[in-house]
Amino acid sequence: MNTGADQHKAKKIGLALSGGGIRGVSHLGVMQALIDRGIEFSHISGTSAGAIGAAFYAAGYAPKEILQMIKDAKLFKMLRPAFGSSGLLSILNARFLINKYIPHNSFKELKIRVTISSVDLGEGHLVYFTEGELDIAILASCCLPGIFKPIIINDHMYVDGGILNNFPVEPLIGNCDLIIGSSCNHLPVVTEIKSFGSLVDRAAMIAINSNLNTHKMLCDVVIEPHGLGGYGIFDTDAADEIYMIGYEEGLRTIEGNDKIKDILSAQNNKASA
């Protein structure tokens, strides 16, 4: 009996995807790189942009297809706040786009397990959605407080999960043998801020990165492209560039990480046996 092969066969690989606006498109590149090398995911956890990538992939779309959908449907542009607007905006106008591509609108019907994080604004704690209506959970996870009206689910107000945890690794712990984290918010050093939007973006990045290292330590592998710091969270025209940055970083990580190499080697040995 080849017990080593059996152990590797049982490996469950989890993927945690951070929030980060359009920078989250880098997750799609990272995922495509891992898939191209033979990695399969059993569970994906995501918040905000990461929740979008997790849900669409688990619905059966390849990362490259998701990238094209985002560009064609201008999904992130619909999620972009209008800073000059009076009052709070509704994020619900993006709901029909999610339903267009995932008509079953159900966690239960996804091909792999997905966890989406959000914050219960009234009770002040993090919530993990794993069942129910998928579209409303995604929008709750993307709902920037102070810009969008909170999403109401069962009389509770929900906003962006990144407020309390922008890198939701915890749902994967105990459920996966190997945890890969994809973070898209590397914080570069800057000497000048030229616009209000850049100021808001910078402040948000500092806030969400405050506990990032703690969550990184929960991962077996962390993929964090450093070239994303120059992109704002609403730089939608840079989607292709951001995707390729993620893809290339994913490939570099695969080539330089022994844990991933061991899994791929075991898979290749089973395939040739």
UniProtKB/TrEMBL annotation:
Which InterPro entries does its entry note? Answer: Acyl_Trfase/lysoPLipase, NTE, PNPLA_dom
Report motif location: GXGXXG.
19-24
Catalytic residues as annotated in Swiss-Prot or TrEMBL: S48 (nucleophile), D160 (proton acceptor)
**Keywords, in A-Z order:** Hydrolase, Lipid degradation, Lipid metabolism
Q: Where is this motif: DGA/G?
A: 160-162
What SUPFAM superfamilies has UniProt attached to this entry?
FabD/lysophospholipase-like
PROSITE patterns cross-referenced by the UniProt entry = PNPLA (PS51635)
- Where is coiled-coil annotated? none
Residues forming the motif GXSXG are: 46-50
Task: Name the Gene Ontology molecular function terms of this record.
Answer: hydrolase activity
PNPLA domain: from which residue to which, for each copy?
15-173
**Pfam families in the record:** Patatin
Q: Which domain of life is it from?
A: Bacteria
Tell me, which GO biological process terms does this entry list?
lipid catabolic process
- The entry's protein name is NTE family protein
What species is given as this protein's source? Mucilaginibacter mallensis
